[in-house]
Amino acid sequence: MRTYVRMVFHSEGADPTRVLEVMRSVGFEESMGMHDFVHKWRDRASIDEVVHLVTTMHAALKGLDVSYEITTIS
Fold it and tell me: What is the pTM of this model?
């Protein structure tokens, strides 16, 4: 199971390097292609676990002025 994140950066927002540091700190790794980051779950995650991960990510990104789209595939 994987949770993917696609980022949209703004010229007035945080440097992409800073965003990468934040995403790594909450358990994502960078990805090439359609999505910029991926979280690889060890086991099948529940909806609550996915929401918790996304809530943690959202809080960590606060103030960095980036937009994101999330896709979770089981």
Answer: 0.92
